[in-house]
Amino acid sequence: xxxxxxxxxxxxxxxxxxxxxxxxxxxxxxxxxxxxxxxxxxxxxxxxxxxxxxxxxxxxxxxxxxxxxxxxxxxxxxxxxxxxxxxxxxxxxxxxxxxxxxxxxxxxxxxxxxxxxxxxxxxxxxxxxxxxxxxxxxxxxxxxxxxxxxxxxxxxxxxxxxxxxxxxxxxxxxxxxxxxxxxxxxxxxxxxxxxxxxxxxxxxxxxxxxxxxxxxxxxxxxxxxxxxxxxxxxxxxxxxxxxxxxxxxxxxxxxxxxxxxxxxxxxxxxxxxxxxxx
Length: 278
Known about the structure:
Blueprint: H1 20-41, H2 47-65, H3 75-88, H4 92-111, H5 118-128, H6 130-140, H7 145-165, H8 167-170, H9 180-186, H10 190-194, H11 200-220, H12 229-251, H13 265-277
Helix pairs in contact: 1-2, 1-3, 1-4, 1-6, 2-3, 2-4, 4-5, 4-6, 5-7, 6-7, 7-11, 7-12, 9-11, 11-12, 12-13
């Protein structure tokens, strides 16, 4: 069965399109990442409490990787993950990369720091998103460098798409993913963004960032033809889900600064049709 999802998700997770033997490890990986993300982002904990929890979470990962039994606090996460680590020899550094990214999120939010340019933001994506694609390719037995590069492009694009659809949520929480260089290039002031003040300049900035994410997604899209059977179809839906969110962001012409676009039933039908045509 698919993993129950308590958070809104635009993209399928461990769906019935996944090969049945891989649903359990994929669900375990998703639960690991989702729980860590919640530790970094949900509730009213202080930044120091969040970092302490993530440190304890990392120690638990190290413990099960060394053959230890999972502790009681996150038993539901680490018991399945331990089984997946053993049965599929998952690359442990990729899981640590995810935790590095969550810790970076906490620190940057607490300090109100911003990303200087797109290279710095992509470096964050390298640890926050790309490990997920690489772990999935590992499960599918796909190892070649072209496939890995395409997976990185898709995963970074998905992370960027999440940023551009969540501006109205992230900016009031001091989470800044629009880079200093992009803001300067479009003449957008940070004060206007913090106040969610829409201007012609902010519209151009959002549309430029959406176009960047689309280009990355299209760069990685040929990966769908490198994955066999149902895995390829799963990825087609992921790619089309991301592109459909971008359609909505771009149709709003910059108004996603004020309201989060969401996918509805007709959008999923369109995604299915587009996936079939890929």
